[in-house]
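Q: Sequence in, structure out?
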Amino acid sequence: MTDQKPSVLFVCVHNAGRSQMAAGYLRDLAGDRVEVRSAGSMPAEQINPIAVEAMREVGIDITAEQPKVLTTQAVQDSDVVITMGCGDACPFFPGKRYEDWKLEDPAGQGIEAVRPIRDEIRSRIEALIDELLASADAPQDDERHPSVLFVCKKNGGKSQMAAALMRRLAGDAIQVHSAGTAPGSALNALSAASVAEVGASMDGEHPKPIEPGLLLSVDRVVVIGDEAVVEPVPGMAGAIESWCIDEPSERDIEGKERMRLIRDELAKKVRDLASELASED
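A: Exactly. Output:
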């Protein structure tokens, strides 16, 4: 993301229900701190009246909104693109954050069925606002610390382990982040348990996509394993490196023992990286 306020585009097929409710919530909860857009791959003629009613129940008026066609320009102008059942229709631009929210379509449903969809959208919007505004609201530190982004495919195991080990080793001396190219739904319990054995913690973490602003600003992007691919984008401050990690399961080593071997290899690489970043700072 840039130094300007973040911008979010919500996209569903008809731009009549889910994307309009999401846009309404984001405008209401974030105010003018976030720029909000919505569009549809096949826009309807009008907003779903049940969606309007559901939002009115929580004090948000979306009656003035109209379904709009999805354009390449709208995607290009947005930092975060959130699709709801029409991801294939959305143009792709490197460096942007894409998410697909699996939400039931309110089309043709009554108010009783739409209320849970509305409430799930609110929960997702609240989490999104926390992520978008965390860096902007964080107190500024005059001393700059080196930063690293660990990436694997699901961001539930190896990248989270590496991040936890680095936080344990470096404390506040290195800014540590992790993300996934295709984030899963939960952390790997064995991964969390294995790093806890050496005093590191994955508490409070969850799988998340790559934040475009982080990709541009961190001093090092570390891609762990061969399932994830991160392409360089123009303006990156740091370099991308890949860590090939031995896979004990290929030697019929499974469960806790497998995870401990992976942890120990990651820990060695993390120590080497911490020393390297410290010498560059």
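The chain has a mean pLDDT of 89.
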